[in-house]
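Why do we bother with holo predictions? Because pocket geometry can differ from the apo form. Keep that in mind while you read this record for D-glutamic acid.
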Amino acid sequence: MQTDSSPRRDIGVFDSGVGGFTVLRELRALLPTARLRYLADAAYAPYGSRSPEEIRARSLAITEHLIEQGAGLIVIACNTATAHAIDALRERWPALPFVGTEPGIKPAVAASRNGRIGLLATPATASSDRLRALIARHAGSHEVVVQGCPGIVDHIEAGDIDSTELRALVEHHCAPLRTAGVDTALLGCTHYPLIEPLWRAALGADVKLLHIETAVARRAAELWTPMPGQPGLDIETSGDPAALRAWIARVLGWGELDVRAHRTRKEPA
Ligand code: DGL
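The structure, written out:
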């Protein structure tokens, strides 16, 4: 455990599961000398079908753990946790820098020619007040078609990134965007870039597809203060470590990394 006198120099990164790896791989590339601590809350995935209270409780418990492990900067590599918990986290740890992940409405507005933008997100993000406020603030006169996509994250968590069933589900969720004639679409969940070819196939080559992971990693890099210490990557999961190890090797091709089991003390009510 970290004592109060030792500096908290690591970067803590969390997601409901494997989606945050899309942010983590950008962070690894940008900050090769940092120590990164990733926590996959797989026992509670998907967050997108949980209540705001549960998402907040999980985010608070995980952040507390990452701080105890030595994190001095927290990257919320999850749109759903950002939508429902970032305010509570900032309130609980006012001196700690947090980087959230939110759909890039501004870049989408800049990219769109016809003024119609699609946003694909988890059900909990799609229905959040924070997303409504983000759109009201940045979309101007552009129309934003928000599509909640239940089911997608479950497939990806299970290691399915290409089945016929998943392709059909992606088609189904993209249909309203096609009907609306959007020319730009945002992937508003960090899991979604892991199946980017499927979104592209369903939306058609004319639709520009934007995601945000690189911008999130850049923001974290700006806030991170390099300090002498051991660079590296620590991975924990509240789910099955062997399953996550296999997922990482198969989907990311990172080889057999060590993955530790994580048990939080506070469980959501
Ligand atoms: N990857 C997450 C996001 O960006 C959460 C997905 C989920 O657990 O539903 O929203």
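The radius of gyration is 18 Å.
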